[in-house]
Each structure stands twice: as structure tokens, then as C-alpha cells.
Design goal:
The chain is mainly α. 78% of the residues lie in helices and 0% in strands. It starts with a helix and ends with a helix.
């Protein structure tokens, strides 16, 4: 079966290419330095974002003294701009021309603002006025998410630009995903050390400052380590004569008319929301429902992420053998079972809690790996259909969804906890005994809600249309048209 009949591709758009380009990197394996540098670049978002996911809502309600509803809402303020910000930066990076290429000027320019704004997140203003606190943290979130967009959108597009091979992309994304999980583990260990040594609220400020510095260093190392490989690919692609690019809104429409891309969006959003909702509610679940010390929260998160990191190497090898959608359908059911089990868990069942955490980690590793490794294949399909390379547009939408997942999870958790009657506190007060309605809400958030999200993502993955053989047809036709 030809790619045209599968995807209804319009090959005529590619016939304006007047030069033959030998894309030897299509079959050439990436060296370890390039893979390592690309993986390290993931720490620029993984460390601060995981600190936010695991600690922001708890910090706002139990350290800064912010109302849970306002705490869950404030990060959505940044989304009002991010709704257009991520695709816009993706589009602008596609159009950027500089000696450093299209992506690196954005990454380098956003590094320092990202670090500074993340530090400011963890300062507690002297005021106790709820709306003044809300205004301060809202302004910081707008600055932070704008800086994150300028770094993570261009960085993420490199996965589609450093190599074109189906298996090599899976391997490259496994490095990215391993550092994403490793960054989460490191952030949790760092947080546990600092929070045990230093009292709040200074402990959170120290945690933010160290995380910000590491994020900046990760960006610099990524640029240094991937630049040589990127320039090889970029120089070859610039030899291809392409049609002028369309206006930005038309490019958005083209991207959203790519049906496999919509599948990837759905898979990623369901996976990410399920993971982030669990991460946001986990400290409440451990402390308020399981009646355990706060140290068990960090140990639980480490059990989940540690298992996910170990399983990443297994799923990467399995993905090269069976394909991306197959491993997603193999791994996610373990997480679905674990999430459902958390709802029925009773105080005192500590060993079973950790067993379920390990089960959850088995599937979470494919939630990190699969959607990001599918996305470069979608970009190839778009090139076959339109003759354009618009990595920035596609990755902009997905990075936008990533941040919507974090903010949406915090908003959802904050609203439900507020409606349930959760009693907020500040660092200097004794933790209150929560009402039964709040305890039930905590169990619902960690159990049925993420379970439903993951089931929807599993169904979408099953029907995802780009298999290994279909991607090979796409690449073959692209190379034919380039000649």
C-alpha cells in the first residue's frame, strides 16, 4: 500500500525541489555525545517543572497561606498567554535565521529569565492579603511560562531535526525521557534534603535557586553538545528549494488538520494529565489519608519515578522491536490498575502502597517515551503533504499541552480540594485534621480521575495510524520528491 492511499497525501507540493540532497543522516546513527547533550537539555524543564508539580500547590496553601481555589487558579493565568504563546514561538523559531540556526537563539535567550522567574516563585510576600498574594504569583507565572516556552519549544523540535530514522528517534527520545524522569528523581531527592535541613519558607527559596542554576547549565550544555550535528542537518535541508511558508494562522490550521497529530495530542494530554493530577495530590494522599510522615511522600514519588527510569531502557528496546503504539498499549494498563488501587487503599497498608507505586512507574515510563517519539513522524507526514518543515508549530502545540497539563492538574486539584472543604494552613501552624469530604476528594483525585484519563489515552494509542512500515513509506517518498 502506498503512502498516498494511507494518508491522502498531495505529492505535487514537493515537485518544486530543484536540487538533489543526499540525506545520509537518515541512516547514520547519532553519536553518544549528541544523545547525551539532547537528554541533558530536558533537565532545563524537568527539574523546575517537577518541583512545581510536586510542591507548588502544597507551598501555596500550606506555606504561603493561599486559599486552595486561588492557588489552583493562579497558574492558569499564565495559560491565557500560553494559549497562543507556544505555537507563536514555534512559528517564529521556524522562521528564525541566524548563524546559530533556528532554535538555539531562543534557547539561549530564555535561559536567564527562566532561572530568575523560577526563583521568584518561592518568595513569600509579607502580606497576608489573599488577592495581593494571588497577584504576585500570577505575574511571576506569566514571566516564567513565557521563558519556558522560549526554551522548551525550540529544544523539543531538535528531536525531529537531529535524525530521521524511526528507531533512532525512539532511541533519542529515550535519552530525553530518561533525563525527564531522572530530573524528577533528582528534584525529589534535592527537595527532601533541603526541606529536612532548612525550615520553610527559606527551604523552598533555596530549592528554587539551585533548580534555576541547574536549568541554565542544562540549556548551555545541550546547545554545546548538539550544535555540530544540528548544523549538518540544517545545511543539507537549506539546499532544498521550498515554497514560501503560509501565514501563521493558516499553518495552525494545517497542523490541526493532520489527523495523526490529533491522535498524538490526545495520547499526550491524557497521559500527562493523569500523571500530573497524581503528582499534585500525592502529598495530600500520603499525609492526610494514609496518615504518614511527609518523608513518605518523597519516597513514594521516588518509587514511581525510579521504576519508570529503570523501565525506560526496557521499553526503548521493546519499541524498536514492536513499535511505539504497541509498547504504549503494553505498559499503560499497569498504571491504570495501580491508580484504581490507590482509591481502595486504607491507612496502614504501607507495603501495598509502595507496590502500587512500582506498578504505576511501569506504565508512566511509556507515557514519557511514546508521545514524544511519535511527534517527529507526524512532522515527516506534514512535509510529505505540504513540502514544508514546520517542527516549531507542531512542537509548540505539544509544549503548550504539557504546560496546560501541569496548570490544569493544579487547577483541577485545587478546585476539588476547595469544594471538599480542605482546611489550609501555613508553615508555622499544626496541620489540621481534614474533614471526611476532603479525604474522599483526595482519594477520588488519585484514583478514578487519572484512571479514566489513562483509559482514553490507551484507546487513542490503539488507533494511532503511523506504524513503522507506514513511516518508512513516508520517508521513502519524501526522499524521492527531494530528488
Amino acid at each position: 500500500m502506498r503512502a498516498k492511499s494511507i494518508f491522502s497525501c498531495n505529492f505535487s507540493t514537493m515537485n518544486d525541489s530543484s536540487q538533489s540532497v543526499d540525506f545520509t543522516p537518515n541512516t547514520e546513527k547519532l553519536n553518544f555525545k549528541t544523545k547525551l547533550a539532547y537528554g541533558v537539555g530536558e533537565l532545563s524543564g524537568a527539574i523546575p517543572n517537577n518541583i512545581l508539580v510536586f510542591f507548588a500547590l502544597f507551598f501555596f496553601t500550606n506555606v504561603a497561606g493561599l486559599n486552595p481555589s486561588l492557588a489552583g487558579s493562579l497558574l492558569l493565568i499564565g495559560k491565557a498567554w500560553d494559549a497562543f504563546n507556544d505555537p507563536l514561538i514555534g512559528w517564529l523559531s521556524d522562521k528564525t535565521r541566524s548563524p546559530l540556526g533556528r532554535r538555539y537563539p531562543w534557547m539561549l535567550g530564555g535561559a536567564i529569565p527562566l532561572g530568575i522567574s523560577f526563583i521568584l516563585f518561592w518568595i513569600v510576600p509579607s502580606t497576608r492579603n489573599q488577592w495581593q498574594l494571588f497577584a504576585y504569583y500570577s505575574i511571576i507565572s506569566i514571566i516564567y511560562y513565557a521563558a519556558v516556552s522560549s526554551v522548551l519549544v525550540p529544544f523539543s523540535t531538535l528531536a525531529a531535526e537531529l535524525t530521521q530514522g524511526y528507531n533512532e528517534r525512539t532511541n533519542l527520545i529515550s535519552f530525553k525521557s530518561s533525563f525527564a524522569i531522572g530530573g524528577s528523581i533528582f528534584a525529589l531527592i534535592l527537595a527532601q534534603i533541603i526541606l529536612d535541613i532548612v525550615e520553610a519558607p527559606r527551604s523552598y527559596l533555596y530549592l528554587g535557586a539551585i533548580s534555576a542554576l541547574l536549568s541554565i547549565l542544562a540549556i548551555l550544555f545541550c546547545v554545546w553538545g548538539t550544535y555540530k550535528r544540528y548544523k549538518i542537518i540544517d545545511n543539507q535541508r537549506q539546499k532544498i528549494k521550498r515554497k514560501p511558508s503560509e501565514p501563521i494562522f493558516k499553518q495552525f490550521k494545517i497542523a490541526l488538520n493532520n489527523k495523526p497529530f490529533l491522535y498524538v495530542i490526545g495520547i499526550y494530554l491524557c497521559s500527562w494529565l493523569g500523571v500530573q493530577v497524581t503528582a499534585a495530590i500525592l502529598p495530600y494522599y500520603v499525609v492526610d489519608w494514609m496518615k504518614l510522615p511527609k518523608s513518605h511522600f518523597t519516597q513514594m514519588a521516588l518509587a514511581v519515578q525510579g521504576t519508570a527510569l529503570i523501565m525506560m531502557f526496557f521499553w526503548s528496546a521493546m519499541g524498536q522491536k514492536f513499535g511505539k503504539k504497541a509498547i504504549y498499549c503494553m505498559g499503560i494498563p499497569a498504571t491504570i490498575i495501580a491508580q484504581a488501587g490507590f482509591f481502595f487503599l486504607q491507612p496502614g497498608q504501607v507495603l501495598l502502597m509502595y507496590i502500587l507505586a512500582v506498578m504505576a512507574g511501569i506504565g508512566i515510563s511509556v507515557a514519557y517515551l511514546v508521545p514524544w517519539s511519535m511527534l517527529p513522524d507526524v512532522v515527516d507526514l506534514d512535509e510529505l503533504n505540504t513540502g514544508q518543515r514546520r517542527e516549531g508549530i507542531f512542537y509548540g502545540f505539544v509544549v503548550q499541552l504539557q504546560k496546560f497539563g501541569v496548570a490544569g492538574a493544579l487547577f483541577l486539584v485545587g478546585k476539588i480540594l476547595d469544594w471538599s472543604g480542605l482546611i489550609p494552613t501555613v508553615a508555622s501552624q499544626t496541620p489540621p485534621i481534614q474533614p471526611d469530604s476532603a479525604l474522599l476528594a483526595i482519594r477520588l483525585i488519585i484514583g478514578p480521575i487519572p484512571t479514566l484519563m489513562l483509559i482514553i489515552g490507551l484507546v487513542l494509542a490503539y488507533f494511532y495510524p503511523i506504524t513503522r512500515s507506514k513511516h518508512e513509506e513516508i520517508v521513502l517518498k519524501i526522499n524521492e520528491n527531494r530528488e
